[in-house]
Design brief:
Layout: E1 8-13, E2 18-23, H1 26-32, H2 35-46, E3 60-63, E4 78-83, E5 90-95, H3 99-105, E6 110-114, E7 121-126, E8 129-134, H4 143-154, E9 159-162, H5 165-168, E10 176-178, E11 182-184, H6 189-195, E12 198-204, H7 214-230, H8 234-240, H9 246-251, H10 273-279, E13 281-285, E14 295-302, E15 305-310, H11 314-322, H12 329-342, H13 346-361, H14 367-370, H15 379-391, H16 395-399, H17 402-410, E16 420-421, E17 424-425, H18 435-443, H19 456-461, H20 467-472, H21 489-505, H22 510-513, H23 519-530, H24 536-557, H25 571-574, H26 589-603, H27 613-618, H28 622-631
Parallel strand pairs: 1-6, 7-12
Antiparallel strand pairs: 1-2, 3-4, 3-6, 4-5, 7-8, 9-10, 9-12, 10-11, 13-14, 14-15, 16-17
Helix pairs in contact: 1-2, 2-21, 2-24, 7-23, 11-12, 11-13, 12-15, 18-21, 18-26, 21-24, 21-26
The chain binds iron/sulfur cluster.
Length: 632
């Protein structure tokens, strides 16, 4: 008996309509825990080398973890994995809400989607009943609207994931949406879902889950909620959510502004967490079983109209606000809503719009090519671009490719300020004076995403201080000295194992990372749920195994993959920050090489960033080592 898990994998071939339910293999649970680990192993095993991300042969995997759906804090996370249409390599994205627990209560830890439905469809799952139904009536609807429509049809107790027009039209940064404002945002999972003609998955589960020690879990689980609420950071985090970090990021000069031209936004007080509270918020909104509901649901009134929206959370403030220079929180919330309806990842959409605006400013994109003027700070221009992108209409067809491909096509130096790594647009931390964070972005397995390792706090504080401590300290308000480059690898690697471990367990990391809810609590809860006594260090070893595996996947799938793919765009190693706390700072190419050299050595990868055979074998990946050797 696998305690903690639902015990089955559900596979649906959308081309043939074949539906299979198989037992969850014990060795998969033992060696990869769940969520991200399941996704990484299954993608490696089941995707044929060279598969086109938009072909029916690509897989979209939805995976839960052993802790998902149990009485432990914040156990509502669900993981999505695929071969990315943005990077061509390993991709995963994590989503909050209630979908994962519902999938488990229906009896499934993992849902594997392959093939392509003959016409627009949605997958209906109600315990043992699994059907592919027509979605003709919903095709073309916004992601939020489609969820509303399906809830009306099926009932409020169905948990539903949807895509918007962006996913239908294969925009490379389309997201999967859920719960009216939660997304698996990054790496283009929504576009893969669109390529399968799948508008939605609706699930209702009424079953239970086997627990190793139900009484113990009830006692310790309830205690855990009280412990989280007693943390000093609790009172600070819950009212403003992630938006609360906006001030601090500006004060340490890491806020992406004007397409990352600079790192300080003078009007940041108008778009911070306080502004969300004062101008937007109606209520808090949280995921399944969460004691710290970080979602802020509110109403935004702008010159373009008013909308109800969840957010903006910090990343949307940074990319839609800072990078595109929107000066009011209402405008940012409106742009956020438009992205949510269209099914666009707000991070990539903001980065793409910012790149296009800079191109326009420099005369690289013209009014004739774009169809109108697009300038920084112009909400109407942004909405125009987002609608064009989602429809792949005119200029939108170019921008729907993301900044890496669009800049390669446009040329004229625009590649230098196309802010991405590996084809994934950079998220909300400008890092020219934050070498640890820069290294984290460079080496993140999915491309330039902060959530693998948020090393900015370490860069600023030089310690493992919690975000709460850093914010309370107020950051630095003066000009900052240039940061040291050496000695960053160890901390970045440590973080790259910690954060993704939560994605394996199927729970939110915020309570650990931001509030300092201690590791021993997770060891205990994991034991009570699964019956496996594993130390934090042993759990992290599994996370390390997954890290080597995802790198190996990209080595296998991307021609010539290696060190060259890890560099940031030239803006970051050629242009000093022009103003703000980090004025004059940047990292030279030589400094970037120092970061990478130390990182590869500490990882046990060769100088091209490829895991060595010895490292793979030591990590329990002998078969992966053999496969890479054969393909060399
Ligand atoms: S902290 Fe926020 S993201 Fe995490 S589970 Fe709670 S509501 Fe969801």
């Amino acid at each position: 008996m696998l305690f903690g898990y639902a015990g089955h994998i559900l596979e649906v071939n959308l081309s043939t309509g074949r539906i299979t339910k198989t037992p969850l293999p014990e060795d998969l649970a033992r060696d990869y825990i769940g969520g991200r680990g399941f996704v990484a192993r299954l993608l490696w095993d089941r995707i044929r080398r060279g598969t086109d991300p938009f072909s029916p042969e690509n897989l979209l995997i939805v995976a839960t973890g052993p802790m998902s759906g149990h009485l432990v804090p914040a156990s509502g996370k669900t993981h999505f994995g695929t071969k990315s249409p943005a990077t061509g390599g390993y991709a995963d994205s994590n989503m909050g809400g209630h979908f994962g627990p519902a999938l488990k209560y229906a009896g499934y830890d993992i849902l594997i989607l392959s093939g392509r439905a003959p016409g627009p469809g949605y997958l209906f799952i109600e315990d043992g009943t699994v059907e592919l139904r027509s979605a003709e009536a919903h095709w073309g609807s916004g992601a939020i609207t489609a969820e509303e429509e399906l809830k009306k049809e099926l009932g409020d107790d169905f948990q539903i994931i949807t895509i918007g027009p962006a996913g239908e039209n294969l925009v490379r940064f389309a997201c999967v949406s859920h719960d009216f404002g939660r997304q698996a945002g990054r790496t283009g999972a929504g576009a893969v879902m669109g390529s399968k003609n799948l508008k939605a998955v609706a699930v209702r589960g009424t079953g239970g889950l086997p627990v190793f020690d139900a009484e113990g879990l009830f006692e310790k689980g309830c205690e855990a909620f009280e412990k989280v609420k007693a943390k000093p950071g609790f009172a600070g985090w819950t009212p403003e959510g992630t938006a609360g970090i906006t001030d601090w990021v500006n004060e340490v000069g890491a806020f992406p502004t004007r397409n990352f031209q600079t790192s300080f936004f003078p009007g940041y007080k108008n778009i911070n967490g306080r502004a969300v509270l004062e101008h937007l918020k109606i209520t808090d909104k949280g995921c399944f079983c969460c004691p710290t509901p970080c979602g802020k649901y509110g109403r935004a009134g702008t010159g373009l109209g008013s909308v109800y929206v969840e957010g903006p959370e910090y990343e949307s403030i940074a990319l839609l606000g800072g990078a595109c220079v929107l000066e009011s929180v209402e405008d940012i919330a409106y742009a956020n809503y438009v992205c949510d309806q269209l099914g666009l990842d707000t991070i990539s959409a903001g980065a793409v719009a910012a790149w296009a605006m800079e191109c326009f400013e420099k005369g690289i994109l013209t009014e004739e090519k774009v169809g109108r003027k697009i300038r920084f700070g112009d909400l109407e221009g942004m909405v125009y671009l987002f609608e064009k992108i989602a429809a792949r209409d005119g200029i939108g067809d170019l921008l729907a490719e993301g900044v890496m491909r669009a800049s390669r096509e446009v040329g004229r130096g625009s590649e230098d300020f196309a802010i991405h790594v590996k084809g994934l647009e950079w998220s909300g931390y400008e890092s020219r004076n934050a070498p640890g964070m820069m290294l984290a972005y460079m080496t993140a397995d999915v491309g330039a995403h902060h959530n693998r390792a948020w090393a900015l706090g370490h860069d600023v504080a030089g310690s493992a201080a919690s975000v709460h401590d850093l914010i309370s300290s107020g950051g630095s308000r003066g000009k900052l000295p240039k940061a040291t480059v050496t000695g960053k690898a160890e901390r970045v690697i440590e973080l790259q194992h910690i954060r993704p471990l939560f994605d394996c367990l199927g729970i939110c990391r915020l309570q650990y990372m931001e509030l300092g809810f201690e590791a021993e609590n997770y060891e205990e809860l994991f034991f009570l749920v699964t019956g496996r006594r594993m130390s934090w260090a042993e759990l992290l070893q599994i996370s390390e195994r997954v890290w080597h595996l995802t790198r190996a996947f990209s080595v296998r799938e991307i021609e010539g993959f290696g060190r060259e793919f890890d560099y940031p765009p030239p803006r970051f190693f050629r242009e000093p920050v022009p103003d703000g706390p980090n004025e004059g700072h940047y990292l030279t190419r030589r400094e970037l090489d120092t970061l990478l050299d130390e990182y590869y050595a500490a990882r046990g990868w060769d100088q091209n960033g490829v895991p060595t055979e010895e490292t793979l074998r030591r990590a329990g990946l002998a078969d992966v080592a053999d496969a890479l050797r054969v393909e060399k």
